[in-house]
Amino acid sequence: MCRFNSGFFFQHPLLQPYRYYWRVEPDVEYFCDMLYDPFHFMQQEDKIYGFTISFYEWEPTIPTLWANVKEFIALHPEYVAEDNAMAYLSDDGGETYNLCHFWSNFEIADMSFWRSPAYTAFFAFLESKGGFYYERWGDAPVHSIAAALFASKKQLHFFEDVGYRHQPFQHCPQDAGQWEKGKCGCDRMDTLDYRQQSCVPRYQRLFQ
């Protein structure tokens, strides 16, 4: 599943007519009314990746992933966006990976980014290293690293107004106006956003 979602689903013939997708998994909960078209929003605002939950990956599943990412960007610096989100991924300018990623069981994204030369080359490089088989490279860190490095940070989007739960974590809108407008059925105190394991504060610091 991780390998398929990392490098193949957007190549499926049935998806070729489409640009945007919203990943929806079984047994998830949505707590708020959706009052606008998120695909139209992504297009109008030039966003390539949207998320609701961000936290740390389990390091034993990706012991060599970052070393391979560093090797790839050394070979292909032309793919690294000038205004990227490296500071979300690394606390030391890219020397090490802090394990932050966007939880991909909810993602709204632009498949033209996954089909781009940068991501195509990136996935092919990772595929050649065997980590999808011999470790457990997940589509969440692979997507997150690619979006953070090969797109402008302004093209990423935190869907703060979307209440969402995938066991055991959830996001509930923190803004009272958003919570009321969306008629959200979640407890605003029950959200992962600012707990110790959350990477949302790191993401938000990109724009401060």
From TrEMBL:
Pfam families for the chain? Glyco_transf_15 (PF01793)
Coiled-coil regions listed in the entry: none
* Superkingdom of the source species: Eukaryota
The family database entries (InterPro entries) matched by this protein are listed as: Glyco_trans_15 (IPR002685), Nucleotide-diphossugar_trans (IPR029044)
Q: Name one GO cellular component term.
A: Golgi apparatus
GO function terms (MF aspect): alpha-1,2-mannosyltransferase activity
Gene3D superfamilies from the xrefs?
Answer: Spore Coat Polysaccharide Biosynthesis Protein SpsA, Chain A (3.90.550.10)
GO biological process terms held by the UniProt record: cell wall mannoprotein biosynthetic process; protein N-linked glycosylation
On whether Protein biosynthesis is a keyword of this UniProt record, the answer is: no
Q: Which UniProt keywords apply?
A: Transferase
Q: Which family does it belong to?
A: Belongs to the glycosyltransferase 15 family.
Q: What is this protein called?
A: Nucleotide-diphospho-sugar transferase
Output the lineage of the source organism: Eukaryota, Fungi, Dikarya, Basidiomycota, Agaricomycotina
